[in-house]
Write a structure and sequence with these properties.
InterPro entries: MFS_trans_sf, POT_fam. The protein is mostly helical and about 550 residues long. The protein is built from 16 helices and two strands. The chain has a two-stranded antiparallel sheet with strand order 1-2.
Length: about 550
């Protein structure tokens, strides 16, 4: 595209392309896509149960897989945008894919032949399983809508920030971007979900289609105003180069340690003094020059057999964070389980507020999002500045993540107590349903914990990764969330196979025991996290301070 090499004319981005003139187009697209996504995603479990007769736990599993995919796709989309197509092409094509997916879901709610017409209820009636065609439309719609949302999610933030050269304006854009994303999600998870529950699924889904379509059109209308960043080599490519070069030279003995490759423009002193670090020493072979690896001008002749020392060290910085990432996976997995099962709990509880209003079950998880948004503001504007004045120390990412761990396993313990009370009322009082408001306390605790640990993880990875891997640090956050949803799916399936805790009728199960197990796992994982932090500080040492953070 001709605009790919266009340069912004001022620090704010004002000129022929870029700047604040692009802001309404990008923000409107962000709002539209997030409203549409929340409208179909948050109520998917209920739709699968009510319209396709799916087992309640199976429906929750499909929702978990869908959430995992939505968070995994951004990693792939970032690679495609950085290396091949650019953010603009990935964003508009993702919006189109999302639109097609929601259209398929809307068709399943509109055309009778695309969903089963007779469902079993309480073991009575004539059962009709969905046909292959019905499953094809259903799962095809879910897959396309998930891929589209994931592809758009990070790249539209990137293209928005690229409209400004000054970091001041970039930060202003990000503030508005995340605010819009949260507000859009809340609107979709409440207003559209209410329409689906109280008007019709067809009307609700076609509202999602309309909002998604408007978002796509608005984004394309701004194309002549956008600044298009020049495509560069993706940092993911250099990481793969290190892996391949290490494997190809795995049998090579390191004899001459002065023959490290620093790049075609490295001077003699740099070559002699800057040897690779000894940690993860097996990776150093990737930077060792062998015959035929370089050309006469000292440039790389075989990219898949030789890397620079800096590329190897960048890969090591990623390796050092993997234990911390693993603790984050086991922090996020219980949250994924809790959110998916809370919808099933809500369906089995009294959701009435007054005589005429009933809270949609699919809107219950939005409590976590609202709580997180509120407490992020409280922390950044009041709590953390007050802490720094009183204690004289910053609230470091390590501390934020640690507090998030504690609040999460406490929230799981409260969730277990609430479920125990719900089950006792159902069994002792002949099916009595307690109020859905009993779910609020532990969801609020989870939301406060997320306000601590999620920004802490983003900040930690961003600070600790070298400049060349900043985009990888962002993708790593999404990858951790994706893995957590996939792990939660596997754990739920394991528990279903080995215990009687998760039957189709949760009133006959023991979700409370499931929560207690996760609470205990959370305590153990917190200890593991503290151990990882200790080893990380010991391994990295003063290099942490060099990245701009103090972790004392």
């Amino acid at each position: 595209m001709d605009g790919e090499s266009q340069i912004l004319k001022s620090s704010a981005g004002h000129g022929k392309r870029g700047g604040w003139i692009t802001f309404p187009f990008i923000i409107a697209t962000t709002a539209g896509l997030n409203i549409a996504a929340a409208g179909w995603m948050n109520n998917l479990t209920v739709y699968l149960i009510e319209e396709f007769g799916m087992n309640s736990i199976d429906a929750a599993q499909v929702s978990n897989i869908m959430n995992g995919s939505v968070n995994f796709v951004p990693v792939v989309a970032a690679i495609l945008a950085d290396s091949f197509f650019g953010c603009f092409s990935v964003v508009w094509s993702s919006c189109l894919i999302s639109l097609l997916g929601i259209v398929l879901l809307a068709l399943t709610s509109t055309i009778d032949t695309l969903r089963p017409q007779q469902l079993c209820t309480n073991g009575s009636g004539i059962c009709m399983s969905p046909t292959k065609l019905q499953f094809a439309f259903l799962y095809g719609g879910i897959a396309l809508a998930s891929i589209g949302l994931g592809g758009m999610r990070t790249n539209i933030a990137t293209i928005g920030a690229n409209q400004f050269r000054d970091s001041k304006y970039q930060n202003m854009f990000f503030n508005w971007f995340f605010f819009t994303m949260y507000i859009g999600t809340v609107i979709g998870a409440t207003v559209i979900v209410y329409i689906e529950d109280n008007v019709s699924w067809k009307f609700g889904y076609f509202v999602c289609v309309a909002v998604n379509f408007v978002g796509l059109v608005v984004f394309l209308c701004g194309s002549k105003f956008y600044h298009y960043a020049k495509l560069e080599v993706s940092p993911f490519t250099s990481l793969v180069h290190v892996i391949v070069a290490t494997i190809s030279k795995r049998k090579l003995a390191i004899i001459d340690e002065s023959n490290w490759y620093h790049g075609p423009h490295a001077n003699v002193d740099q070559t002699m003094s800057n040897a690779p670090s000894t940690s993860f020493g097996f990776l150093n072979r990737a930077a060792l020059k062998c015959e035929g690896d370089v050309k006469q001008d000292d440039s790389i002749a075989k990219p898949w057999r030789l890397c620079t020392v800096s590329e190897v060290e960048d890969f090591k910085s990623l390796m050092r964070t993997l234990p911390l990432c693993s603790s984050s996976i086991f922090l996020s997995t219980p949250i994924a389980v809790l959110i998916s099962l809370s919808v099933l709990q809500a369906l089995a509880m009294d959701r009435h507020l007054g005589p005429h209003f009933q809270i949609p079950a699919g809107s219950i998880p939005v409590i976590v999002l609202i709580t997180t948004s509120i407490f992020l503001t409280i922390f950044d504007r009041f709590l953390f500045p007050a802490w720094e004045k009183l204690i004289g120390q910053d609230v470091t990412p390590f501390k934020r993540i640690g507090v998030g761990h504690v609040l999460t396993f406490i929230g799981l313990g409260v969730a277990a107590l609430v479920e125990s009370k719900r089950l006792s009322q159902v069994r002792d009082r002949d099916g009595f349903r307690i109020s859905v408001l009993w779910l609020v306390p532990h969801l609020v605790l989870i939301g406060i914990g997320e306000a601590f640990h999620f920004p802490g993880q983003v900040s930690l990875y961003y600070q600790e990764f070298p400049t060349s891997l900043k985009s990888v640090s962002t993708a790593l956050t999404w990858l951790v969330i994706a893995i957590s949803f996939y792990v939660s799916t596997a754990l739920i399936d394991l528990v279903r196979r080995t215990t009687s805790w998760l039957p189709n009728d949760i009133n006959q199960g023991r979700i409370d025991k499931f929560y207690w197990v996760f609470a205990m796992v959370g305590v153990v994982n917190f200890g593991y996290y503290l151990l990882c932090v200790w080893f990380y500080k010991r391994k990295v040492g003063n290099k942490v301070v060099d990245h701009g953070a103090s972790y004392k």
